[in-house]
Write a structure and sequence with these properties.
The complex is a heterodimer of chains A (about 250) and B (about 350).
Chain A lengths: L1 E12 L2 E12 L3 E5 L6 H8 L7 E6 L2 E2 L5 H7 L1 E3 L12 H8 L10 H6 L2 H20 L15 H14 L4 E5 L7 H18 L2 E5 L3 H7 L2 E6 L2 E7 H6 L1 H8 L2
Chain B lengths: L5 H25 L5 H26 L7 H18 L7 H27 L4 H20 L2 E5 L2 E5 L13 E5 L4 E2 L7 H19 L2 H11 L1 H6 L4 H24 L4 E2 L3 H4 L1 H14 L4 H17 L7 H17 L1 H9 L2 H12 L1
Antiparallel strand pairs in B: 1-2, 1-3, 4-5
Classes of the chains: A alpha/beta (about 250), B mainly alpha (about 350).
């Protein structure tokens, strides 16, 4: 069963057709890769999936629910979480608070502003539950020892992990990772690959990722879609797509 | 005993400072060691501290520069004073009357905060600062043009002059245009001021350390990321802004009930005042609740204490401003502070003893 189904998605900026006739189907528990040269429209696709841009035409179905054209807040509530190409953490908050901010809309932790100001029993109960849940997530990413650090003081690789942890805190059905390995050294990339695989297995998560690091893509993605000039160039199993002559000339190089 | 977390400890220190300062002032007053000049400045100290703490919610926690804070104080002051003057015969207990006036002032200022916040918070940075500055001035000038009276037929309102109110012979004019309100019952005192300051601190500190506060700070740190995890930007921005405005309204009510004459002059409700409050916040440390409170107290006390020096007074004031700025903001100052911090010195002493 497909968690995410995208049909004929398209958007124009002025006279530029940034993405045209883009279709995609991601099955539950799949690790799906979206690759392509710079400017091909990969991040634009992500921005349409998360409601930052409204697509001009096409449909986005999440678990068979039509979420096309909803705002990014509603889409997050519906179950899509993302990370960013350039890390966007809440830099002045602690590592723990970053994850707790991710728990903001989870029903079991919600309490009103007034409850918070008056410190009613519900406040303490919800905060304690939040702390526990956030620490659990941090432990998965081996960040529990840094819980009280300011997020901006973490080393780069750990900031990437924290961003994933925060996205997971919103309890999504689908996780979008925008170039998770950007700026990482080979060791860190290797570690990240293990983490992504672990997240998929541990949380039964469906993951769609954009990446330029071919080692990572070939290592963990099960299926690939290649974008070029806003259009789908190839789509299929990773090994087949990477040997497709069209893909090699347009993106990979001889 | 359960160990207190670092933030809880820090908050208790903040409340402790206020309580201790209050007790010291009370003892000095009771034993007659305080000059009448100092006695007169105690309530303003509370007012400025409340204003600084409430503005810090907008500037430090929400991260938006607002230069119209005195406008909200003005709303609170006038609505509170009007309420008190209207009900001065109906409600005989000054404490109860003040409490109700306080509620009226807070609610009115809060509503103003929401009304102004909805259009204004779409802007950011310098643009927001300019627009809030303008709104502050508009509020002040509007108040200067209002005529408001009461007689046996009810309340009368005019923007022209006091004759246009058409009052019966027994009527009283409550707001007389630019001459403002005279004869407000002086219901406030130092104790009430300190209680209000404590309540303000509790509200702001508890808000910051709650789910709401986390959402507000998330918006400050990264708006796009906050949206991506489902935080409603507009809602929390307006919430923070209006709470900040409502607390400024509380300070205004306190201000109005400390003096018997209330006029909206540039000195007390104009942009000078807004910038003065911003100076407290910036020098106390943006985002530091305790810091803005202490800065407000020191910078209000200083000109008064230096009164004996006459013309050198403002010179020293300026030097102190610069010194505090270096102490709180320059990297070298921060490094120096860390090296010689009291907590660290105590720890070192402990080690040596062992």
């Amino acid at each position: 069963m497909a968690v995410l189904e995208v049909k004929n998605l398209g958007i124009s900026f002025g006279g530029l057709r940034a993405v045209d006739d883009f279709s995609l189907e991601v099955a539950k528990g799949q690790l799906y890769g979206l690759i392509g040269p710079n400017g091909a429209g990969k991040t634009t696709v992500f921005n349409m999936l998360t409601g930052v841009y409204k697509p001009d035409n096409g449909k986005i179905l999440l678990d068979e629910e039509d979420i096309t054209g909803r705002s990014n807040i509603e889409i997050n509530k519906a179950g899509i979480a993302r990370t960013f190409q350039n890390i966007r953490l809440f830099s002045d908050l602690t590592v723990l608070d970053n994850v707790k901010a991710g728990l903001h809309n989870q029903k079991e932790y919600i309490y009103s502003t007034l409850t918070g100001i008056l410190r009613l029993p519900r406040y303490f109960q919800a905060e304690r539950a939040m702390d526990e849940r956030a620490m659990e997530l941090l432990k998965v990413f081996d960040l529990d020892k840094e819980a009280s650090y300011k997020a901006s003081n973490l080393p780069y690789g750990k900031q990437r992990k924290l961003e994933i942890a925060r996205a997971l805190a919103t309890n999504p059905k689908l996780l979008l990772l925008d170039e998770p390995a950007a700026g990482m050294n080979p060791n860190e990339t290797q570690e990240l690959m293990d983490t992504i695989r672990f997240v998929r297995d541990e949380f039964h998560m469906t993951i769609l990722l954009i990446e330029h690091d071919m080692k990572l893509v070939a290592g963990i993605c099960e299926k690939l879609t290649v974008l070029n000039f806003g259009q789908v160039l190839a789509c299929g199993d990773t090994s087949e797509v990477l040997q497709d002559p069209k893909v090699i000339t347009a993106y990979l190089g001889e | 005993m359960k160990k207190l977390s670092k933030t809880t400890k820090s908050n208790l220190i903040t409340y402790g400072i206020v309580v201790v300062a209050y007790l010291v002032c009370e003892i000095l007053m009771r034993t007659g060691h305080m000059s009448s000049l100092m006695k007169g400045i105690l309530v303003p100290l509370c007012i400025y501290a409340i204003l600084a703490v409430s503005l810090n919610l907008t500037v430090g926690i929400l991260g938006e520069l607002s230069l119209g804070h005195a406008g909200f104080m003005c709303v609170g002051a006038f609505t509170g004073a009007v309420f008190s003057k209207c009900t001065v015969e109906m409600i005989a207990v000054p404490g109860l009357r003040f409490l109700l006036a306080l509620l009226v002032g807070i609610v009115c200022a809060g509503i103003c905060g929401i009304l102004i916040g909805i259009p204004v918070l779409r802007l950011r940075g310098d643009y927001l600062a300019i627009v809030t500055l303008a709104f502050g001035e508009i509020i002040k000038n509007l108040v200067n043009a209002i005529y408001f009276g009461m007689d046996k037929n009810g309340l009368h309102f005019s923007m022209k002059d006091s004759i246009a109110l058409g009052l019966e012979p027994d009527g009283v004019i409550i707001i007389k245009g630019a001459q403002g309100i005279t004869g407000t019952p002086t219901d406030s005192n130092f104790t009430i001021g300190v209680i209000l300051l404590l309540i303000t601190l509790i509200i702001v500190i508890n808000l910051v350390h709650s789910r709401t506060g986390r959402a507000i700070m998330a918006i400050r740190d990264n708006r796009i990321a906050a949206e991506s995890i489902g935080i409603n930007i507009t809602k929390y921005k307006i919430l923070a802004f209006s709470v900040s405005a409502a607390l400024a309204g509380a300070a205004g009510v306190l201000y109005a009930h400390n003096l018997s004459t209330l006029t909206a002059l540039p000195k007390n409700f104009g942009y000078n005042m807004s910038i003065m409050i911003l100076v407290f916040v910036v020098l106390g440390g943006i985002g530091s609740i305790r810091g803005s409170m202490i800065a407000a107290v020191i910078l209000t006390l200083l000109p008064e204490l230096l009164r004996a020096l006459n013309e050198y007074r403002m010179l020293i004031y300026a030097v102190v401003l610069i010194a505090i700025m270096i102490f709180t903001w320059s990297p070298k100052g921060i490094a120096l502070r860390e090296r010689y911090s009291l907590a660290k010195l105590l720890k070192r002493r402990e080690k040596e003893v062992q």
